[in-house]
């Protein structure tokens, strides 16, 4: 049985005990005292996952971080530590674990093949702290978008944590200082620096959900019908298409720019899909219109999302890397790149290499006699 609230040290999210006077305020107190286990705090899991996913851009990594945070809480309660505010404790552990993960994964991320996009979240796959208020819900969806998560990559792990906690999750600077282990003035400076970077490239999204959905519907109709002129009318002149294959899926390593090039590429993809028997299921992908593409056997082949603003599509982002689709179900091998150890020759094909001549064939031919029919 854990120690009663008035006794015992307070749990430190880093695994060390903190003095009893160091209160992690700003969260919900434990109902009914300390007689609860970590399983009773599952109500905080959506918040924890929302923080971890926005920090890492990875569903699997976010799940691992949340699981580790619950394990640390379990150990703290088992050791009799006092957790005055489980919400603040779990948010702190989750944030610090995410910062550590980003620092350790920096080299791997820098060596990533081609464009990097976050693992896609399909509507219903994320149980975030989304508010019923439509404006607040839209703001949360924008902070979940692929464009926003890619932009966060320009920030350091600590900058990312401070910015998300204040801008998205509405923590004040005193709470952020407790969570990150920084001073309150330092947190203000970090946020100002991060805000400057974000504002320089912050994506814009359609304010009207009805107009956004109408543009998406017309986009799918044009692509599905092979209507390239109709598609061109729905694409911004400087539209960009980004594909994430991670060196495993068939995707262009460099983005495709321009309405005409993107339109022709999309029409070509759809024609290929018709021949292969693949089909797309419209869905909200990271809070924005998109689709999940399945092969003829119902396995996930790719996911793409649309950035819509000013009544046109500003960007198309496609994830083909099978490692980033596993959480959505069985993945297809339809768009996998061939293994590098297989001999793929360049076009046009060359004739097979002839075997080296034998010793006898290299011998000098017999002299030919002029006028001899048998020579």
Low-confidence stretches: 1-10, 15-35, 124-136, 339-354
Overall radius of gyration: 28 Å
Largest sheet: 6 strands, mixed
Architecture of the domain at 209-328, according to CATH? Roll
CATH fold descriptor of the domain at 209-328: Nuclear Transport Factor 2, Chain: A
In the CATH hierarchy, what is the class of the domain at 209-328?
Answer: Alpha Beta
Report on the structure:
- The chain is an alpha+beta fold and 375 residues long.
- Among the domains are: 1-116, Orthogonal Bundle (Rna Polymerase Sigma Factor, Chain: A); 209-328, Nuclear Transport Factor 2, Chain: A, CATH 3.10.450.
- The protein is 40% helix and 13% strand.
- The chain has 12 helices and 8 strands.
- The chain has helices spanning 45-56, 59-78, 86-104, 106-110, 134-144, 146-152, 157-167, 173-180, 184-201, 209-225, 228-232, 259-276; strands at residues 10-11, 17-18, 235-244, 256-257, 279-285, 288-294, 300-309, 312-319.
- A 6-stranded mixed sheet has the order 4-3-8-7-6-5, covered by helices on one side. A two-stranded antiparallel ribbon has the order 1-2.
- Strand 6 (288-294) and strand 7 (300-309) form a beta hairpin.
- Helix 2 (59-78) crosses helix 3 (86-104) and helix 8 packs across helix 9.
- Mean pLDDT is 79; it is low at 1-10, 15-35, 124-136 and 339-354.
């Amino acid at each position: 049985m854990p120690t009663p609230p008035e006794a015992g040290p307070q749990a430190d999210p880093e695994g060390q005990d903190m003095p009893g006077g160091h209160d992690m305020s700003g969260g919900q107190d434990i109902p009914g005292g300390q007689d609860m286990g970590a399983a009773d705090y599952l109500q905080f899991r959506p918040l924890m996952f929302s923080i971890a996913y926005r920090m890492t851009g990875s569903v699997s990594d976010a799940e691992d971080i949340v699981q580790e945070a619950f394990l640390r809480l379990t150990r703290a309660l088992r050791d009799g530590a006092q957790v005055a505010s489980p919400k603040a404790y779990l948010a702190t552990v989750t944030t610090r674990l995410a910062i550590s993960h980003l620092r350790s994964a920096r080299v791997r991320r820098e060596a990533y093949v081609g464009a990097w996009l976050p693992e896609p979240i399909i509507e219903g796959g994320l149980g975030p702290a989304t508010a019923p208020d439509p404006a607040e819900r839209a703001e949360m969806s924008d902070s979940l978008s692929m464009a926003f998560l890619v932009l966060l990559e320009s920030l350091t792990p600590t900058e990312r944590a401070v910015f998300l906690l204040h801008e998205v999750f509405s923590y004040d600077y005193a709470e952020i200082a407790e969570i990150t282990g920084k001073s309150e003035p330092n947190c203000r400076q970090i946020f100002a620096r991060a805000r400057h970077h974000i504002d320089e490239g912050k994506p814009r999204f359609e304010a009207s959900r009805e107009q956004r959905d109408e543009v998406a519907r017309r986009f799918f109709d044009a692509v599905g019908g092979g209507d390239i002129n109709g598609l061109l009318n729905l694409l911004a002149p400087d539209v960009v298409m980004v594909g994430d294959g991670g060196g495993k899926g068939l995707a262009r390593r460099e983005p495709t720019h321009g309405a005409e090039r993107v339109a022709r590429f999309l029409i070509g993809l759809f024609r290929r899909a018709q021949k292969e028997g693949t089909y797309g299921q419209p869905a909200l992908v990271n809070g924005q219109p998109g689709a999940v593409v399945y092969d003829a056997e119902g396995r996930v082949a790719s996911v793409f999302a649309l950035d819509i603003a000013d009544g046109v599509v500003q960007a198309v982002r496609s994830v083909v890397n099978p490692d980033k689709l596993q959480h959505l179900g069985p993945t297809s091998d339809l768009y996998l790149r061939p293994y590098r150890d297989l001999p793929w020759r360049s076009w046009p094909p060359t004739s097979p290499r002839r075997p080296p001549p034998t010793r006898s064939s290299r011998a000098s031919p017999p002299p030919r006699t002029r006028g001899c029919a048998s020579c």
